[in-house]
Amino acid sequence: MTYLIAFIVAILILVFFHELGHFLVARWAGVRVLTFSIGFGPKIWSFKDRRGTEYQLAAFPIGGYVRMLGEDEFSAQPKPDEVAEAFSNAKPSRKVAIAAAGPFASLLLGFVIIYVILITGTRELEPYVGEVAEGSPAMVAGIGEGEEILRVDGQEMKSWQDVNLAFAERLGDTGTIWIQTDRGEYGVQITSWLSDEVDPDVVTEIGLEPQLRAHIGYVSADSAAAQAGISVGDYISHIDGRSIQSWQDIVEIVRDNEDRRLLLTVEREGEIVSLTLVPRSIVADDGTTFGQAGIRPQVGRLVRYGPIAAIPVAFDKTIDYIALTIESIYKMIVGDVHAGNLGGPVRIAEFAGDLAELGITPYLMLLALLTIALGLINMLPIPMLDGGHVLFGLIEWISNRPIPLKIQAIGMRIGLFVVGSIMIFALYNDIARLVAS
C-alpha cells in the first residue's frame, strides 16, 4: 500500500501541475478548455465551471490531459459563434505558448520543490572516502581511505550527492574522470563506462564507499557515553592518542575495550574537550563480551539556506538536473547508456515507495527529478507530445499558414505509435526487473 499510495500521490501532483500550465495559458490565450482531466478512462468524479470547462478525475491515474475546442480532428469542432475560441484558430505564437506551458510548469515545479528542500534543510553526507575496493579503478588511480573529495572534473563537491551526480554525467564516456582530494589529484580511466549496465551504482563501480565521520548524532540516556559527558554534535578526533578517521574506528576501539578507561579528545563548538569513557561490558548471544558506549553517528551535516540565498542554489541545481536528464536521454538514444535503464510505472512506484519510507525529503527530491524529466520528455519533437505541438506551431508561425488537420492527424498517429512503443518498452523493462529479482 505504501508503494501504491506514494505512486498515486506522485503522479497526481506531477500531472496536475503539468496540465495546469496548459490550462492557464489556454485561458489567457482566449482558447476554450473543454476538459481538465487527471487520469484516463471513465470519469469517477467531475464538475463544470461557469465557462463550461469540465474538471474530472478519471479511473486510471497514470496521466492527464487538457482538451481544448478545435484542438484536433478528435476534439469537438467550433460552431460558427465559437470560432474565435478554437485552438485551431489561435495565433501560432499562442499555440506554441499553450503547448510549451505544460513542460515549463513541470520544470518550475521542480525548481520550487528543490527550493523548499533547501530552505527547510536536508542532511548531506560529506564526501569523505571510506573503504576503497581492492583492484577497483579508484584503487588503481591511488585514492586512499579518509581522503575528502574536493572536485570531480573541475566541479566543486560538497556532498556525496554531488559526487554521484558528477559520476553519473560520465556514464557511457571514454576518457579520464579527474578526482581531486585533499591529498592530490587522480585520474580514473574509463572506456564506454557502464554502457552495458542496468541501474549502475556509479560510486560503487568506481570502487569508493562513503565514510561516516566521527560525529555524534545520538547519545542514549544513562549510557556510558552519557556518563562520560558526550553530547550530540561532538566530534571525536582522538581516543587514547590514536587519530580517529571514521565512525568504524570508534566502533572497533569501543568494542575491544569493555570496562577500560579511554581518554577521548572531542571537538565541541570550536573548543577541544577531554573526556573519559568507560565502555560497558555486554554479553553477546554466543557468550563473548564486547564494549558498548551507547552512541550513534550523525549521518551527514544539516544544510539549510535562507529564503534569498536558496534561490540561486535551487536554480543551479535545477539546471544541473535538466542537463543530466537531457544528456541521459541522448546517451540512451545513441546507445551509450543501456536502454534497460528506461523505467515505467512499476519502476516509479518502487522508487516512490522506497523513498517515502525514508522520509519526506527523499520523496520530495524524487518528485523534483520526475517532474523535470516529465517536462523535458514532453518537449521532444514528437507529435502527440507537447514538443510536437510546439513544432507544428513553429512551422505554422514561420510559413504563415495553418497545417491541414489531415497532416496533423497523420503526425498524431505516428506520435501515438512512437510514444506507445516507448511505454510498452518501459513496461517490459519493469517486468524484466521484477522477474530478475
Q: Can you lay out the helices and strands and say which pair or pack?
A:
Elements: H1 2-28, E1 33-48, E2 54-68, H2 92-120, E3 122-124, H3 137-141, E4 149-152, E5 155-156, H4 160-168, E6 175-181, E7 184-190, H5 202-206, E8 216-219, H6 224-228, E9 235-239, E10 242-243, H7 247-255, E11 262-268, E12 271-277, E13 280-283, E14 289-292, E15 295-297, E16 301-303, H8 310-334, H9 345-358, H10 360-378, H11 386-399, H12 405-436
Antiparallel strand pairs: 1-2, 3-16, 4-5, 4-6, 6-7, 8-15, 9-10, 9-11, 11-12, 13-14
Helix pairs in contact: 1-2, 1-9, 1-10, 2-8, 2-10, 2-11, 8-10, 9-10
Structural class: alpha+beta
Poorly predicted regions: none
Question: What gyration radius follows from the Cα positions, in whole Å?
Answer: 28 Å
Report how far the terminal alpha carbons are from each other.
20 Å
Order of helices and strands: HEEHEHEEHEEHEHEEHEEEEEEHHHHH
User: Percentage of helical residues?
Assistant: 40-55%
How are the strands of the biggest sheet laid out side by side? 5-4-6-7
Mean pLDDT: 89
Q: Which overall shape is indicated by the principal axes computed on the Cα atoms?
A: elongated
Our count of helices gives 12
Note the beta-strand portion: 15-25%
Q: How is the main sheet built?
A: 4 strands, antiparallel
Kindly state the number of beta strands: 16
